[in-house]
Amino acid sequence: MKAIHDPHGALASGLAAIRQQYQVPEDFPREVLAAADLAARNLPGPAHEDRTDEPFVTLDPASSTDLDQAFHIEEAGNDLLLHYAIADVAWFVADGDPLDVEAWKRGETLYLPDGKAGLYPPALAEGAASLLPQGPRPAVVFTVRLGPDGEARLDAARRALIRSRAKLAYDSVTAADLPPAFARFAERVNAAEAARGAARVDPPEQEVEALGDGRYALSFRPLLASERRNAALSLAANLAIAAALQQAGTGLFRVMAGPSAKAMARLRSTAAGLGLAWPEGVDLKALERTLDQRNPAHAAFMLAVRRAGTGAGYAPWIPGVTPWHEAIAATYAHATAPLRRLADRYVIRATLAVANGQPVDPQVEDAFRRLPGVMAKAEALSGQIERAVIDLAETVMLHGREGETFKACVTDADGDSARVQLLGLPIVSRARIPGAAPGSRVDLRLAAVDSKARRLTFAPA
Fold first, then answer.
1. By the 8 A CB rule, do 120 and 36 touch?
2. So what's the pLDDT on residue 15?
3. Model pLDDT for residues 247-288, shown as the tens digit of each residue
4. Which range among 173-187, 272-286, 385-399 has the greatest average pLDDT?
């Protein structure tokens, strides 16, 4: 992590400019806030079975208050049963009400280092609907059976009232805080991924973090072991839900194609330049499974792989078509973050119906047809904001260092324009380098820094 020294407040003013440029909502309309306050008083009823005696816990970043998921795990012979409680947003939000209309406008929560623009007002997202340990909360509990081979199957989906026993944090959780089978569950999921040829690319994320008192830091942050294991719970549940929906002939799926032939050729050049051994006959996924986030060359290649893909999107169920997510190597859905993603609320509603032998609400089926476009727009906006924030932080970090020379690695190139990662700093930028080859090491001179335009200008030294 690199602390950003910003005595002139360029980062704070730049974040305000980003919010204005991308029209990030500052608050919710008055009628939406009023609807949230009213909905927060919608107490669970007979539809929610009482499961408050079960040992659910949550595991998230320490500062998070919009908690989508709580869980506990038990053994059932050779199987492991994941009881996965997901915030029951649909209990509070009705089709066509002010909360629903506003959520369709937003699509997902937008995150900036100085605050977020939520999908739902705090009265719900950080209060009545969040699975905080302050009191009983309504949830949809998915029971996911995981066999010794790591294959997940949906056993049940029921509305329930749960009480979280603890709000655990990634950076401080210990094995004693978690269910005894937590690590074993993740190991089975990971083994199944490898067996089916999956390769999720999880490079260290380039992120800007608020440190307090107007200070920020820019870092490449590898995932902690607790995060990776927690992600395995969501993966197993989403795979099981996707399979159940696909079999029932309904649903909304997360889909992604693999890199094109041209992109693969670039990746091979990048790997060679970074000194990675990639024998002929070994496919990209097999190579990815050997990479280590903590190795700078591996991290640079993981970033290049992520940028080489076509990106993920959403697709409704279509007769005769198997929705496919290439990185996961399976049919996959999103159902475990309804406080932050609009689409999840509808996938959860469909899963509740299918698991209990009921027809899927026609309004849910209609939403599946409309959601791909809405979610694509929301994800594009989120990505633009994230990149703008990082670009801003990079310019503030390097302000005053014009004329210095930095060592860098070319991660990919398009003609004379190259994307480069500085070695020793968490900065990814572009530079005009004639004849740049992916994977090559270069010395670059910082020619100019423009924080208002969020632009660094590098030239070959």
1. yes
2. 93
3. 999 999 999 988 888 888 878 877 887 788 999 888 888 888
4. 173-187
Q: What is the pLDDT of residue 1?
A: 43
- Taken in order of first residue, the domains within the chain and their CATH numbers are 2-241+381-397 (no CATH), 263-287+400-460 (2.40.50.140)
Please report which confidence band the pLDDT of residue 436 belongs to, taking 50, 70 and 90 as the band edges.
confident
3-state secondary structure the chain: CEEECCCCCHHHHHHHHHHHHCCCCCCCCHHHHHHHHHHCCCCCCCCCEECCCCCCEEEECCCCCCCCEEEEEEEECCEEEEEEEEECHHHHCCCCCHHHHHHHHHCECEEECCEEECCCCHHHHHHHCCCCCCCCEEEEEEEEEECCCCCEEEEEEEEEEECCCCEEECCCCCHHHCCCCHHHHHHHHHHHHHHHCCCCCCCCEEEEEEEECCEEEEEEECCCHHHHHHHHHHHHHHHHHHHHHHHHCCCEEEEECCCCHHHHHHHHHHHHHCCCCCCCCCCHHHHHCCCCCCCHHHHHHHHHHHHHCCCEEEEECCCCCCCCECCCCECECCCCCCCCEHHHHHHHHHHHHHHCCCCCCHHHHHHHHHHHHHHHHHHHHHHHHHHHHHHHHHHHHHCCCCCCEEEEEEEEEECCEEEEEECCCCCEEEEECCCCCCCCEEEEEEEEEECCCCEEEEEEC
Radius of gyration of the chain (CA): 23
Contacts of 216 (CB under 8 A, 6+ apart): 3, 4, 6, 11, 113, 208, 209, 210, 393
Q: Provide the pLDDT confidence category of residue 424 given band limits of 50, 70 and 90.
A: confident
Per-residue pLDDT tens over the stretch 123-147: 999 999 999 998 899 999 999 999 9
Q: Tell me, what's the pLDDT at 143?
A: 98
Count of Cβ atoms closer than 10 Å to residue 64 Cβ: 16
Give the integer Cα–Cα distance in Å for 341 and 317. Answer: 19
CA of 245: how far to CAs of 16, 92, 99, 127, in Å?
A: 42, 24, 26, 30
Q: Give the pTM.
A: 0.91
98-106 vs 30-39: helix crossing angle, rounded to 10:
120
